[in-house]
Amino acid sequence: MEGKTAKDSMATLARTMFPTDANAAGNVFGGAILRQVDEIAGIVAKRHTRSNVVTASIDHMNFLAPVYVGDLLILDARINCTGRTSMEVEVEIRAEDLDTGEVRAVGSSFLTMVALGEDGRPTEIPPIVPTTGEEKRRFEEGQERRRRRLEELGKRGG
Ligand SMILES: CC(C)(COP(=O)(O)OP(=O)(O)OC[C@H]1O[C@@H](n2cnc3c(N)ncnc32)[C@H](O)[C@@H]1OP(=O)(O)O)[C@@H](O)C(=O)NCCC(=O)NCCS
Fold it and tell me: How many domains does the chain have?
């Protein structure tokens, strides 16, 4: 199958946070952010594969800075590496105070997305072809995380 680059599928999502996303004090729920993270990872994975995709795993996540109602949540997502049917998507999370323009790094998340064929089973995907030095570094680091993930699961990587 012909390879694709990370640039072919990368995406950015920006969304204002509303009171329904937050607790009574105006702090946005981690779960509300994770929902957006999952959504953009799905968009990127679908762009890469043009097939149905599901989330197999989300690596542990730390929230390094708060997000408040009224902030703009900004998510940048890209594929780091691919296996036979799965891919690692990295999502960088930032929050912008729209009154002041201050941008805070909130964290990042690694998701494993799996492509499903029409039979609902995992199906082969185009490999990611790293072209730049940074893409090669991301690919190698992604492969190492994938190896560790599968080891924890007791699965062998393809
Ligand atoms: C993800 C899922 C399709 C994997 O099915 P499976 O029978 O384990 O399939 P396989 O063993 O062939 O694995 C398929 C790929 O997923 C990867 N994978 C499976 N479980 C994984 C996990 N928990 N974390 C990371 N990767 C995983 C495998 O390594 C394999 O990747 P590769 O082909 O690139 O090497 C299946 O577990 C599932 O449907 N889960 C529910 C997904 C879902 O609905 N998510 C939304 C929230 S419920």
Answer: 1
